[in-house]
Specification:
single chain; 314 residues; alpha/beta; eight-stranded parallel β-barrel; 13 helices; 12 strands
Length: 314
């Protein structure tokens, strides 16, 4: 019998994981009972839509998401064609996500727009309009197109999310997208804040660093490197502030790791992990996508499937 908690849980196939290992990983994640698999598109690594297509082809029910496609790298007409193809071939199983793209990477490849928020707004708006069957003519601040329309649009448009953590990006996602993809480091406080005060909150898909071990210190040691890199990064001021670190990048000592992990990760014993996942759901996460840490991600996921999911109340 399927576990409803696992249906709302998923896993990430790591950005630096070899593409040739994806299909086996996707099959294993589905066999364990998880409902979701997310693949990563970072510059100069594996392509997100190609990975998604591969994972969808070797599974039967797994929902696959891409997090995230940099808007400046994707012509919206071509992006909509690719997304529509997956949505038709695998109806109800694909989620696309767009974001600004890392500024330094966009500059490196000559694609940094003058107004990043405008580029994201126009790209997502056009993609969603095309997926809905509209004909698009636009003379915007970033995009210009005339009488563009998909010939093979999907009968049901797939989800299109925006990956962001800043207030303006979150407001944009509420206005024009189907919801938000929240990256690692977005604990329950941030998830709740991103939902806003309105009675209707956006869909929130939340990534979370994950390590499970009955030796709590061993699990914390596996998440510590990611937590320390995140704490000194300049990219996520709002999640850091709501995690109690302030907006400025800071060094995190070994003695602070346990407290920080409890606030923004899913790490520790099976009981610790169940409580952390529960807090993310209670804060408004619609789906929690685990990012396993350490050398054996499937071992981490097997333990969640066997020892954690039954303790989650939805």
């Amino acid at each position: 019998m399927s576990n409803p908690s696992l249906a709302r849980l998923g896993a990430v196939y790591g950005a630096f994981s070899a593409p040739e290992g994806l299909n086996g990983y996707a099959r294993a994640v589905e066999k364990l009972g998880f409902g979701h698999l997310w693949v990563v598109e970072d510059c100069f690594l594996a392509g997100g839509l190609t990975q998604a297509s591969s994972a969808l082809a070797v599974t039967e029910r797994l929902r696959v998401g891409v997090g995230l496609m940099p808007a400046p790298l994707r012509n919206p007409a071509l992006a909509a064609m690719e997304i529509a193809t997956l949505a038709r071939a695998y109806p109800g199983r694909f989620t696309a996500t767009f974001g600004h793209g890392v500024r330094s990477w966009m500059d490196q490849v000559g694609a940094l727009p003058g107004k990043r928020l405008s580029a994201l707004r126009e790209t997502v708006s056009v993609v969603r309009a095309l997926l809905a069957g509209d004909s698009v003519t636009l003379d915007g601040s970033y995009l210009r197109m005339r009488d563009v329309e998909l010939e093979m649009r999907p009968s049901v448009a797939p989800e299109v999310l925006i990956g962001t953590t800043g207030p303006r990006g979150i407001e944009l996602a509420r206005d024009i997208a189907d919801g938000l993809l929240l990256p690692e480091g977005c604990g329950p406080e941030f998830v709740r804040w991103a939902g806003g005060a309105d009675s209707v909150s956006p869909t929130r898909v939340t990534y979370a660093w994950h390590a499970i071990d009955e030796d709590r210190s061993a699990a914390l040691a596996r998440v510590a490197p990611s937590l320390k890199r995140w704490a000194i990064s300049e990219h996520y001021p709002w999640p850091r502030e709501l995690a109690g670190l302030g907006q400025a990048p800071v060094q995190v000592s070994d003695s602070q790791i346990a407290a920080l992990a409890a606030r923004v990760a899913v790490a520790g014993t099976a009981c610790d992990c169940a409580e952390s996942i529960q807090r993310l759901f209670d804060a408004g996460s619609d789906r929690v996508i685990l990012v396993p840490q350490g050398p054996d991600p499937l071992s981490e996921l097997r333990q969640v499937a066997s020892a954690v999911s039954t303790a989650i109340s939805l």
